[in-house]
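Progress note, sequence design subtask.
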């Protein structure tokens, strides 16, 4: 009696379909550039609707999902390609977020000092914590499972962008201000989220195939969790990032008069 062969961890046609969606095209770059602009505007104006718009615009789920798909299928070149395209798009979003902040600062629409970093939405993105890990784990599980089931509507892509685009925008604004610690905090959050989305994607695929823990690729999410946990503990214990975001309301009060309700940007005021 022939031995029963275990079903494959990942069907090749699923990998092929996802790989076909992942192209470094002009439309992909345009969407990522637009997401960076929207993210910076949202964080500077503390606007949740605009921040959600930046996530919806960013087509990050297919390239990120391709990484766990290809790793599980043993197609490492495709995994590298997916990660490279995702990082290229995020780098472009970073550049457009920084450029948007710089242009608005030059035009006097926003302040050019550290008061830019006191917005509540921005503070949450430069102070990663254990809640950040929980959100990225959920994003990886839900996003990869949906992509594997070919549920590729816009809202599914928002799951991945939720953990990535705001961190990119916050880091770009911090670079404009010239404050190193929030830059590191934003980039740490970005790296944590990329690793956890990929790692939890592998977990989702292994569990769905009934092979969790029985394949060498299962070591990837374990390693990701260990590295992310160690980095977070180190960053918080050394004070590189605080355990909770600073009270932006208190900071705003200490730095000057509060902005008029309904006014999205803090305007530059000079004293003589």
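Output:
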């Amino acid at each position: 009696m022939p031995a029963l062969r275990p079903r494959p961890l990942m069907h090749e046609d699923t990998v092929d379909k996802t790989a076909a969606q992942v192209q470094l095209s002009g439309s992909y770059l345009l969407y990522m550039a637009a997401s960076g602009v929207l993210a910076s505007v949202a964080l500077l104006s503390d606007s949740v609707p605009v921040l959600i718009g930046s996530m919806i615009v960013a087509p990050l789920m297919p390239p990120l999902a391709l990484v766990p798909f290809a790793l599980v299928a043993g197609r490492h070149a495709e995994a590298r390609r997916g990660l490279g395209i995702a990082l290229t798009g995020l780098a472009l979003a970073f550049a457009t977020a920084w450029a948007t902040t710089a242009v608005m600062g030059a035009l006097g629409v926003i302040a050019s000092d550290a008061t830019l970093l006191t917005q509540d939405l921005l503070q949450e993105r430069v102070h990663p914590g254990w809640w950040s890990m929980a959100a990225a784990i959920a994003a990886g599980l839900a996003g990869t499972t949906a992509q594997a089931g070919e549920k590729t509507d816009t809202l599914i892509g928002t799951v991945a962008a939720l953990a990535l685009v705001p961190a990119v925008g916050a880091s770009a604004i911090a670079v404009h201000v010239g404050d190193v610690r929030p830059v590191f905090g934003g980039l740490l959050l970005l790296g944590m989220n990329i690793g956890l989305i990929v790692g939890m994607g592998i977990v989702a695929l292994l569990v769905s195939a009934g092979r969790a823990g029985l394949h060498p690729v299962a070591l990837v999410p374990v390693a990701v969790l260990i590295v992310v946990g160690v980095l977070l503990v180190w960053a918080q214990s050394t004070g590189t990032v605080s355990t909770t975001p600073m009270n932006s309301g208190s900071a705003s009060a200490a730095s000057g008069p509060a902005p008029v309700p309904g006014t999205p940007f803090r305007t530059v005021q000079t004293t003589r």
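Residues 1-6, 247-272 have pLDDT under 50 and may be disordered. Work on this subtask will continue into the next period as scheduled.
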